[in-house]
Amino acid sequence: MTISRRSALKLGMAAGAVLSIPSIVRAQTGSIDPQIVRMVMRDPLSAFDPIFTATDITANHAMAIYDTLFALDSKLIPQPQMVGKWSISEDKKTYSFELRDGLLWHDGSPVSAQDCVASIRRWAQVDAGGQMILTRADDISTKDDKTFKIVLKEPLPLLIDILATWSGYYPAMMREKDADRPAAEQVTANIGSGPFKFNQELAKPGASFTYDRNEAYRPRKEASDGFAGAKIANVGRVVWDQISDPQTALAALQAGEIDFAETPAADLYPVIESDPNLALQILNKSGQDWCLRLNHLQKPFDNVKARQAVLHLVNQEAFLRVIAPDQKYAHTVTSIFGNTTVYSNDENTGWFKQGGNPEKAEELFQEAGYAGEKIVILQDTTQPSHRDASQLLAEALRNVGLNVELAPSDWGGLSKRRVNKGTIESGGWSMFITSDTDFLMSDPTSEVFMNAGGDKAWYGWPKNDEYEALRAKWVDVETLEERKELARQMQRIWWDFVGDVRLGQELRPIARRKELTGLIEMPARFAMWNMQKA
Asked: Shortest CA distance to 58 belongs to which of 184, 170, 187?
């Protein structure tokens, strides 16, 4: 590997950090124990209920302690998990599910069909796919302690896929007494039936959280395959240490005080790659799709010509150099269905041009009647890639004559302001940059980027009735080929009215010590079972 002068300087800085930063976890149970894995996750864990919130860190917590009825295998095909066997009636309206033997809650009580019915109903209050099940359901009820049924008014071909996927809220099965509360009221018990137990006594908010192997858990007999099959906890304890500074986390990783860092800083990749004890590994091979959300309600982006101008203006290669400095982890993306899904296609992508097309953008802004209105870009300053990408966007817009202002804040401030549908003068906004997992673009029923329902859509509130009529057909299309054709039709309309603008695809490797192996490579979520430590 050739290390540039810039990388060499960073290598020296990081090496200095290792020497100068005091031990952060050495006083605790050492990471040298092969039965204990210490990890640094990307975000701090502040909410524990995966139905109360859909954040990635909460879903990862839920993966460890809560099980699901179905799970996706490595080919993203739904497989039974808590379900032992299931059947569907000839008219495709009645689904019967029987739980497998040996399922126990962490408090020792048996998992029942009543628990599952209550859990489905609570999850369906907030999840788009779950809401679709509720809309079509005539009955969701138990037959006996191990068996329940879902009776539909009309067939729903994707029902099993909806129960297995995690494109919205993680479909955690909880005890009935927990699942009986409203989705807006957070469950605090942290008692599931999964392969790990949450150790409440060792919980140190702001510092660390601990998960212990569930010795009573009975894995499925099938081999582990993606998130399906046997969930075997090969280590006795997993600890999530909260370390916000990337160099401090790297120092701890190099010292062997932690075993895993979920999102090492991209400018530290050369340091990690040069360390014989460390490795970079891509678990989520679908990567993250970066997206520019435009406010369709306010000038100038209430005008389709102005939105088309931005589509032509964006230079994805330039944004990717900011977002993913190591270009082997960066790819352009032109399909609203992402790069890695079976529905990715090239319909209506003639607008894409390497380097962008500022001349065409300037022409379209003139056609839109742009008259110098202020354009406010909400800028997240807590993440360098977001901060710098917003600055690049502002510069590109100014270069074609637009009046641009950056509104810097932390992500919390951005999240609060983006709900404002009003004018710039009343605290509104024009644009902001965000991202989501490429794999999730395979599900337009739940993926927030792909909703064009106006007030029902995500921030930016795009609206197009023709597109929405096609999106509504998605759950009723039975064959893959039919859905692929539907995807092309949807994409053709999307890029005509420009629901949003994509900035590129970034792959994010994790960093680990080489003695930590067996990590499951799947999109969007992180599983703690299967891994082992030499």
From this structure: 170
